[in-house]
Amino acid sequence: MESNDLKRNVEDAWLQYHRHIDEDTKNVYASYFTHISVFVSEEIRETIENEMKIFASESMGISGSKFSSDDIKNSHLIIGERKLLDTVVSESLKMQDKEIGFEIVHLKSDRKIIISGKTPSDIIYGTFFLIKAVIKGVLPEEIQGIHIAKNGLRMIQHWDNLDGTVERGYAGRSIFFENNVILQDNQKIKKYARLLSSIGINAISINNVNVHEQETKLITKEYSEDVIRLTEIFRRYGIKVFLSINFSSPILIGGLATADPLNMDVKNWWIGKANEIYHIIPDFGGFVIKADSEWNPGPYTYNRTQAEGANTIAEALLPHGGILMWRCFVYNNQQDWRDRTVDRARSAFDSFIDLDGKFLENVILQIKNGPVDFQVREPVSPLLGGLKNTNMNLEFQITQEYTGQQIDLCYLPTMWKEVLDFKMDGKDSHSKVSSIISLAGKRKFGGGIVGISNIGRSEHWTGHPLAQANLYVFGELSYDPEINLESATNEWIILTFGNRREVISTLHDILLKSHSVYEKYVAPMGVGWMVTPGTHYGPNVDGYEYSKWGTYHYADNKGIGVDRTTLTGTGYINQYSQYWRETYENLSTCPDNLLLFFHHVPYQHMLKNGKTLIQEIYDSHFLGAEQVTKMIRDWNKIREFIDSETYEEVLKRMKSQLANALEWRDVINTYFFRKTGIYDEKGRKIFP
Amino acid sequence: MESNDLKRNVEDAWLQYHRHIDEDTKNVYASYFTHISVFVSEEIRETIENEMKIFASESMGISGSKFSSDDIKNSHLIIGERKLLDTVVSESLKMQDKEIGFEIVHLKSDRKIIISGKTPSDIIYGTFFLIKAVIKGVLPEEIQGIHIAKNGLRMIQHWDNLDGTVERGYAGRSIFFENNVILQDNQKIKKYARLLSSIGINAISINNVNVHEQETKLITKEYSEDVIRLTEIFRRYGIKVFLSINFSSPILIGGLATADPLNMDVKNWWIGKANEIYHIIPDFGGFVIKADSEWNPGPYTYNRTQAEGANTIAEALLPHGGILMWRCFVYNNQQDWRDRTVDRARSAFDSFIDLDGKFLENVILQIKNGPVDFQVREPVSPLLGGLKNTNMNLEFQITQEYTGQQIDLCYLPTMWKEVLDFKMDGKDSHSKVSSIISLAGKRKFGGGIVGISNIGRSEHWTGHPLAQANLYVFGELSYDPEINLESATNEWIILTFGNRREVISTLHDILLKSHSVYEKYVAPMGVGWMVTPGTHYGPNVDGYEYSKWGTYHYADNKGIGVDRTTLTGTGYINQYSQYWRETYENLSTCPDNLLLFFHHVPYQHMLKNGKTLIQEIYDSHFLGAEQVTKMIRDWNKIREFIDSETYEEVLKRMKSQLANALEWRDVINTYFFRKTGIYDEKGRKIFP
């Protein structure tokens, strides 16, 4: 039998309240939890009271907490909407009215802690903030502070299909759907909503952006009752529900002959549809749409611009306050590999830059972090620096499509943080991606950060238990990209596995290095795409080399890489600001980890670390595989502090990861050895 | 409106009776068709009478043919079983009693034609032989002859699954199955049985050799009624029905804990199962089994030999005269590409050679034509020369898995004929593959030639209308491998499209060259496997290079090919007779079209045609694509003589074939150019 604090309720992820907090902290906080006042709208009252009740009783051993909604005087913990609290404790609340977020105030003399937030999501997140602080042993004196939500929108988008499958899902089948019906397991959804609300998420879209025949009907009466039901669950956690829609809906479910956005019947159809939806769900979030991409229909079908396509639908949503999220993942997926003038990386920028300012106020353009498609290493999308008068969502992929598929450990926040901290003009911190997104989000309908879900019906939600950290820190980062990543990582570790120093330091090290380890053994230096076509797992160096997907590395016996320079290449570099244009254009200033993304260089090219390109490929691949071995050793070291179920599950996956890393190492090394005939300087085993 | 003789009833394939035969032939034959006596068992009487009736009325315009079963005197066409006819016209029948087949006798003075055959299939095939002869305009004087069935067994094996899919099927879904039930469309099956009987086929297995969970139940009560129904249809066309079975049936449907072939419960279970089946289908053919291959269970699971596994099941069938066909496609599909000592090509021989003579008399080992897996060019399987005391089926793949998937035209009989004519000892015609198979087939339970079906629910049965020729000539070749291929090809053309000279000569040319054209633009010189993994269509040079499937070409910047020599390679060559060992081992005698199958050679290696290997690769790929263009031109030339539906369908596919050929040409050429840096001598366009 495992002890109580070793045991984990895997379904509760990072909310392990059965684990008792230490006596010192308990003594300090106990009195605050005896009487709690909750000043909120009915919708989230139960959520907050329940959470407090469970935490107080399970973690703190206080079973008789009293709750009220008006007894400020006798309460020691006061949680509520800013505007409701204003009248009673206004002098202590300093938060600027314009900002969303939450504030925690500690009135030492009165022994009161006051959590006030602007939106339901803020209040719930503030509540969890307190819980986390108590678990971490933060003292009441240190807890005070204002937490501005830098992004008004923190969203999870699901790629779940009604048949129960999840596109690029590596954590089991959909928790929402099966066999073309919406599942009835409200408890599961509730648990999920709770987890999301605990990390500040305030929006969700539940179905895949590739909207197939059946999913197109999600906005019809066939599914309305169940959509309402889901909306009700998420509403209680401060989360708005969106649906992905099909651009051809007017034809497919409307019976029209066209979906041309300038056609009056089409416009009216969307207006009618929006009215219908908002009639039954007045706080419905809106739509997500992938148009003119990978066989999805869009305005190009009718020779209309992306703006014309978006505005017609947005116009229908506007009177209801609904939002249209329009993905910028528009490109030609029937490219000819022989034609080197076409460059898929250019596509998002080329397709949208001239439309800046032409979208209705409730359209949000959704832009992937890189210009291509969630590779392990890509430069930051230049479109993020290009759009000045457009609402924007920055889209990250939490599900690990190209980053290990939740078999290999790849902690993504390190990569996301690099993107968020990237200065589009190279100098000014106002040009940081996080600032640009946050600033764009200040407009009425805002925008923010979107993550593609990595959860499913698997026991640990995320398949790989440690992949929960990606979801957790995604939430934290999307609320405030300026947080300290190391602290946020530790917070997840402590909440999940307790606060033993060995566990924290070991896992901290494993997680923070894992993206770099993964990067070492896969496609080298930003070139990407050397994966098995279709599945996108495991090495296949030429797998996408002669495809229609615009995904090439051009390796020959002399060199490798894509020339995207302005001078001799595809001119992609020209989409950046002057600073990055110059930096990337020039071989001597272009960062080596993006070298092959921007340049075609000979294998003998000397890198900044003094090695030749070919030797760096060999070295990094040997090293990457070695580091996986070390990771497994490290994981073994903390075995006694991890519940056996989680320990074994992680170990099993790490062993698969090692096999994968060895396969990558050998295939990549052999591929380049065969192509170049150049031997490893260190004489290590490369298979001929 | 198309004229009557241009029109084609596509579902009747090569049996286009609506097309009238010419007046001269009609006049010569008319009298023979007025009164017909049919001396056969009840089962096939209707089949033969119907066929004669339709042909006489539709093609010959004779509507009042009289049929009897005993009026020899007044009949001019007498069709029947040899033993029944013996008593009445014995002096005219010269066929040796021991041989199966049919004889046609023309008694000029009596104006009688007598067709006598040994088995139901022979009699029906003889009947069709007469019909074909009349259509071709052969005179009664020239029709006389003995047709020995060189192979007692001429079989079509289906890879159809109960869910309606067809593994490696390129002609639509299964005609037998859908949604886990056996379809009720008896008319469709009857039409199919008729087509098969017209080309001498006398056995069929209806389900995939990969026997999944549901298909395992085909030998249970759940499906018995429908299996009986199918058996009844095929029986009327002289065709025996077999089922593919799962080696683990004793566990999966028998409820036993093991399928160990030496376990007494297992043995008894198979005996009981056989009794059960033969009780309801006394002439049931038997089983086909793929054991210990690609995840299928087999005797290796229990540390038993393939012979021990086979004999247990065969023993159960033996009292009923049932046959067990045991595939030799046994190999390790979890190979490590790094390990060059393992060679998949060795596997069939290594697995079975020591078991020669150890199988029960009703076991037939089923051997693919090549040692690997139906590539466009493989040497002949050495196992065919190795087994001396074992029944054998030679397995061809009519469905075009690696040979164009019925999009690209690839007439396979030219390749099959090379295999059949191949002398295993290099000299003696007794060592010809066809003779070996035929000789082995002389044993009590025989053996013969098996083809994997290329038909499905598609309108033209075979997807590509011209792919019907593969099925047709497969049947003819399996009946007698010594037939003249050119004549058989012409026969199919005439039956299918009529006897216009332009059509015959053009199609003859297109068909007979098509395998060579296809071979030119795909993987070079016997190396194989440069296809898209999974689908097996289109080029992917390294697609299987680092896989677990044992499918490698080892191309580096200096050379390419698999060293299978005895001296420095895997020793596969050692499985051949001395003549081929010496021929293949030596670079100067090894045929160039198999060069890379047997040797790893430098790109500068000089071929027998005076070109370097690399130049030959370039040349053949440019030429292959050119020849497809010419093929389309040729097809266009005979447009006016082809019904428009077939014309357009073929043209559509030829255009796809051209796109495929261009893709192959460019990918292969670029791949090798990138790897070698060697330019095309003729300066043609190779993309960098």
Give the arrangement of secondary structure elements.
The structure is a homodimer of 688-residue chains.
Chain A: H1 23-29, E1 35-39, H2 42-59, E2 66-68, E3 77-81, H3 82-89, E4 101-107, E5 112-117, H4 120-136, H5 140-143, E6 145-148, E7 153-157, E8 177-178, E9 181-182, H6 186-197, E10 203-205, H7 213-216, H8 221-235, E11 240-245, H9 249-252, H10 264-280, E12 286-289, H11 306-317, E13 323-327, H12 347-352, E14 363-368, H13 383-386, E15 391-397, H14 413-421, H15 433-440, E16 448-452, H16 468-479, H17 485-497, H18 501-521, E17 559-560, H19 578-585, H20 595-598, E18 601-602, H21 613-637, H22 644-676
Parallel strand pairs in A: 1-2, 1-3, 3-5, 7-10, 7-16, 10-11, 11-12, 12-13, 13-14, 14-15, 15-16
Antiparallel strand pairs in A: 4-5, 4-6, 8-9, 17-18
Helix pairs in contact in A: 2-4, 10-11, 16-17, 17-18, 18-21, 21-22
